[in-house]
Design a protein that fits this description.
Blueprint: E1 12-15, E2 30-31, E3 33-42, E4 48-54, E5 57-64, E6 68-75, E7 78-85, E8 93-102, E9 107-114, E10 122-127, E11 132-133, H1 134-137, E12 141-142, E13 146-152, E14 169-172, E15 175-178, E16 187-190, E17 194-197, E18 200-207, E19 215-217, E20 228-230, E21 235-239, H2 241-247, E22 251-255, E23 265-267, E24 273-280, E25 286-289, E26 292-295, H3 311-321
Antiparallel strand pairs: 1-13, 2-11, 3-8, 3-13, 4-5, 4-12, 5-6, 6-7, 8-9, 9-10, 14-15, 16-17, 18-24, 19-20, 19-23, 21-22, 25-26
Helix pairs in contact: 2-3
Pfam family, one: Hint_2
Protein name: Hedgehog/Intein (Hint) domain-containing protein
């Protein structure tokens, strides 16, 4: 199967708080193969059921700070427990549980990932997996600690999926155009190569909480005339004497999340689901977005047009930069 981050978009069968059109029923209520994923806030103070779906079948995701994660699934007289043993980290972080299943073979694999703390990650395989009923998960009950959950036929989440808000104004050969109004063939103005034709718009539909929470870049910083919304991993071009002093280069790319200080940029979690767009120009390029300079879509393995700073480089850089220096070089 093609990996999720290589496909034009990820199709969710269920995504928490994503409302289906009135009267629409799932195309196929029984999903025999796919991925159930949930993110929750650490630390957990007590054992609790994070997610429970009840109906003809029953499914629940249980987390115990000392014992680990258990996914219990009942269909008729059959009951199975899928376990990922081990104490949960007692730190303030976001944890992600991923349950990959294949009902025909019965094989499953459960993984726990602590975002930002890979030393706590672990996984366990097993057999006995059953198909999951889509409709029941759409009305599942959840604990306050659960940030979001989703069910998809894909086998993995996007590993790298930068996007910009559909209303963001993109500089084109016909003037500023909202990203949602662009069409293949439009000339997109870039910092290095002039106008490049747009190959395609890649839609993103992702949860707007937990590790996928978007970032609001604030005006007038970064050269912006108005606030824009981007993904946490959207590379942004910054420049100035401070960048050259610390990094040995006049310009560098920084993921939006690294710029969050509550003033220059901040996490935006007021909505449960976010729609974004990535611009594919055939290769990574620096595009102009309302005065800010962002990197366009990059396929896996493609080289960015500027050096991307490591996490450890961004903290001293932001302290030295000063807000007026957060701009791109035109």
């Amino acid at each position: 199967m093609t990996q999720a981050h290589e496909t034009p978009s990820m199709e969710w069968r269920v995504l928490s708080d994503m409302v289906l059109p009135p009267g629409r029923a799932p195309d196929n209520d029984l999903l025999t193969s796919g991925l159930l994923v949930a993110e929750f806030a650490l630390p957990l103070e007590r054992p609790q059921v994070l997610l429970r779906a009840e109906g003809e079948a029953q499914l629940s995701l249980y987390a115990d700070p000392e014992a680990g994660i258990t996914l219990t699934h009942r269909q008729g007289a059959r009951l199975v427990n899928h376990r990922l043993a081990g104490a949960l980290p007692a730190l303030r972080a976001t944890a992600r549980v991923s349950f990959r299943f294949e009902a025909r073979s019965g094989r499953w694999r459960m993984e726990l990932r602590v975002i930002g703390s890979p030393g706590h990650d672990r996984a366990a395989p097993g057999v006995g997996a059953m198909a999951i009923r889509v409709a029941e998960l759409q009305v599942a009950r959840r604990a306050n600690a659960l940030l979001w959950y989703g069910l998809t036929e894909a086998q993995s989440l996007p590993a790298h999926a930068p996007w910009i808000g559909p209303q963001s104004l993109i500089d084109t050969t016909r003037g500023p155009v909202a990203a949602r109004d662009l069409a293949p063939g439009d000339g997109i103005l870039t910092l290095d190569e002039g106008a490049l034709p747009l190959h395609r718009l890649i839609p993103r539909r992702l949860p707007a909480r937990g590790s996928f929470a978007p970032i609001l870049l604030r005006s007038p910083f970064f050269g912006l005339t108005s606030d824009i919304l981007v993904s946490a991993d959207q590379p942004i071009l910054i420049s100035g004497a401070s960048v050259e002093y610390l990094c040995g280069t006049e310009e560098a790319l920084v993921p939006a999340l690294a710029l969050c200080d509550g003033s220059l940029a901040q996490r935006e979690e007021r909505r449960p689901v976010i729609e974004g767009l990535a611009l594919d120009l055939g290769r990574p390029a620096l595009i102009l977005v309302d005065g800010c300079c962002l990197m366009s879509h990059a396929a896996p393995g493609e080289v960015a047009p500027r050096r991307t700073l490591a996490d450890w480089e961004t903290t001293p850089l932001l302290a030295l930069l000063g807000r007026v220096a957060l701009r791109h070089v035109a």
